[in-house]
Specification:
The chain is α+β, with helices and mostly antiparallel strands and about 450 residues long. It has helices at about 1-10, 10-25, 35-50, 115-135, 155-160, 165, 210-215, 220-230, 250-260, 265-270, 290-295, 335-350, 370-385, 400-405, 430-450, and strands spanning about 50-55, 65-70, 75-80, 100-105, 105-110, 140-145, 170-175, 185-190, 190, 195-200, 210, 300-305, 315, 320-330, 355-360, 365, 390, 410, 430. The chain is globular, with a radius of gyration of 23 Å. The two termini are about 15 Å apart.
Length: about 450
């Protein structure tokens, strides 16, 4: 990899400048801010790297794709990424403007640096490096940049299905999320799915005096708390009947991979200010280890609020809202989970209003799937040490549109630092990891090309 690494070193300044320009293009799919300009900029980045581009209508925000053929008989690799980002959130929590890239302490700060502009751009720059250094790519490549990932990629599966014949691919590589907590090089085999929803409970027309109306007017906040208490037990078990229908047990290979992952539980907890781990999702705290928890279903309350103002007053609120999400393990079906949640709410609090938000199906690629050895070999070669094999990313991505929809093995090569603060203020990407990510992506493609 010396040739590629030297190339990356020579072009560090240019690559960082291009990334900074990419971060400066807002692309918030939740509001639509900047998405048209972002699609145009994404196409420019692919063109600069020698790809034939196409902007694909999805019925929503378009896909931006780029293709370059490799040697006859070489595999066709799809590189998935997304060019939309999360809203910046409270601007006062940022040390520098979210859409103005700033470099501090060896990191680039800005919305999208780690999630996902910096990571997919490292993959794109690897294509440029391979062509500049060797005159061609080691395999055929199609880059697919999604503009709707942060809102659940509602149009991705059907759009990719319509492109099946054009893609005719063999394997998928994606870079998103952080490396393993140990900071060792990582290959991820799957992702959990997600279902997010909002429960609203309404009471009187307006907030009522808690003394004058206490014991008379029903309190929607209490009703909401009681409903939530029927959904998850104090020992950690999820109590929604049928939510786990279809869950597939971990294979021996997946269990072996989980067992091989290094983890210092007290240190991991302490790094975020915790002293103890959560109760077990099975109800038995000794049954499920730290790493296995990240491959199992979850039920999370994201926020609780009353819509009568943030200041504390002695009132019975008129409206109470809970925003929640569930992470889905392999085998769970989004529609089945939606129906299970709907039936549970109807049974326990019929007048509550349930609104589903973004959904994503889980994806699974087994350790012995095609191309697994080549991907692990490529990542390990770039790092100079064996890569860890992680059966499932804790978070969610719309990879099922490729693994299940197109029947392709999918491999994640996360490049970002563990403390990238994706979705939060001061999102960042260590520049060392950005540049090494280019080398890693190139090494992976070379390994796939000569597998």
């Amino acid at each position: 990899m010396d040739v590629i690494r030297n190339y990356v070193d020579q072009h560090r300044r240019r690559h960082e400048q291009e990334l900074a320009e990419w971060i400066a293009v807002p692309s918030v799919s939740a509001t639509g801010e900047g998405m048209s300009a972002a699609a145009e900029h994404a196409e420019i980045l692919l063109l600069r790297s020698g790809l034939t581009t196409r902007v694909v209508d999805t019925g929503g925000i378009p896909l931006v794709t780029g293709h370059k053929s490799g040697p006859d008989g070489s595999p066709h690799v799809v590189i998935y990424g997304h060019y939309d980002v999360q809203p910046p959130g409270p601007l006062e929590d940022w040390q520098s403007p979210p859409f103005e890239a700033a470099i501090r302490d060896g990191r680039m700060f800005g919305r999208g640096t780690g999630d996902n502009k910096g990571q997919h751009f490292a993959q794109v720059l690897a294509l440029r490096a391979l062509q500049d250094c060797y005159g061609e790519l080691p395999c055929s490549v199609t880059v697919v940049l999604d503009g709707e990932e942060e809102i659940g990629s509602p149009n991705l599966a059907k759009t990719l299905a319509s492109m099946r014949n054009d893609l005719n691919a063999d394997v998928v590589v994606w870079s998103d999320g952080p490396v393993h907590d140990s900071y060792e090089p990582t290959v991820t085999l799957g992702v959990r799915g997600a279902v997010s929803f909002e429960i609203t409970v309404r009471g009187a027309d307006a907030a009522l005096h808690s003394g004058n109306w206490g014991n008379i007017a029903p309190n929607p906040a209490w009703q909401l708390v009681w409903l939530l208490s029927t959904m998850r037990a104090p020992d950690g078990r999820i109590l929604i009947d049928g939510y786990d229908s279809g869950v597939k047990p971990l294979t021996a290979g997946e269990r072996d991979a989980l067992a091989a992952l290094p983890v210092d539980v007290p240190a991991v907890l302490a790094s975020v200010g915790l002293q103890q781990i959560d109760v077990s999702p099975t109800g038995d705290p000794n049954e499920v280890g730290f790493n296995e928890r990240l491959a199992l279903p979850t039920f999370t309350i994201n926020s609780l609020s009353c819509s009568d103002g943030d200041d504390h007053r002695s009132v019975i609120p008129s409206v109470a809202v809970a925003r929640c999400d569930m992470r889905l393990a392999c085998g769970q079906q989004v529609d089945t989970v939606l129906e299970a949640v709907r039936k549970h709410v109807d049974k326990h609090l019929p007048h509550a209003q349930l609104q589903f938000k973004a959904t994503m199906a889980p994806s699974r690629t087994l350790p012995d799937a095609p191309f697994a050895d080549a991907v692990v070999r490529g990542v390990s070669s770039a790092a100079g040490k064996p890569a860890l094999l992680v059966p499932a990313l804790g978070g969610s991505l719309p990879i099922a549109a490729l693994s299940d929809g197109l029947g392709l093995p999918c491999y994640g090569i996360p490049l970002a630092n563990v403390d990238e603060h994706n979705h939060g203020p001061n999102e960042n990407f260590e520049l060392y990891r950005f540049h090494e990510g280019i080398v890693t992506a190139a090494s992976t493609l070379l390994s796939l090309g000569r597998r």
